[in-house]
Design goal:
alpha/beta, Rossmann fold, Arc Repressor Mutant, subunit A, 2 domains, 4-stranded antiparallel β-sheet, 8 helices, about 20% strand, elongated
Length: about 240
Amino acid sequence: MNKTLKPSMLIVEDDEAVVAVLKYNLQKEGYQINVSHDGRDAFDQAKLLRPDLILLDWVLPSISGIELCRMLREDEVTANIPIIILSNKDSDFDKITGLDKGADDYITKPCSPSELSARIRAILRRMRPAFSGKMLRYEDITMDLDAHKVTRNGAEIKLAPIEYQILQILMEAPSRVFSREALIDKIWGSEVEVGARTVDVHITRLRKALLKMSKTGEDVIKTIRLAGYTLRKVAK
């Protein structure tokens, strides 16, 4: 698992006891955890925070887990977030229904912490290259996650830890717009008070560092008004 950026996870579960156990075990594994007890709230959180993975119970207030799974898959902001359904329903029909609605995996409760962790790691390795120690590339920028090294046009760029993490988030999903709240949650976590202005300062520093090694002088980081930040292709 990548050492510089904790994978973020949204647990959607209305049973407080189950949440407590899941949160305890997953935080020990190094995951940044957010929790929702309600389907509608979970949908809003997923759109705002864009977690790396969602653990989803079937039976929820307001919206069922299956319906929420469908909604997440149909929304362009959340369509590619990995989803694991955790459910007491153990029939083949239920499992097929969950997978057909867009879940990436289906686990019957209760399950052992070690099995859950293994299934999570497998999905993240498959869907998130940063968690398998691979290289990230965008245009003329390369990020070597094992060596913790960023280059542009072959020249190394020295980045502070926060700027490195922001760039990693953007390079993993260059088509996505990340809100300031999402960046704060992924980097600092929900328990730390960090203002939006702090994110803007780090983005400015990252932009300057990248521009120094640009052959065209093009800024690859795009600000989307009232939404956040994303990467855009360099104009040819």
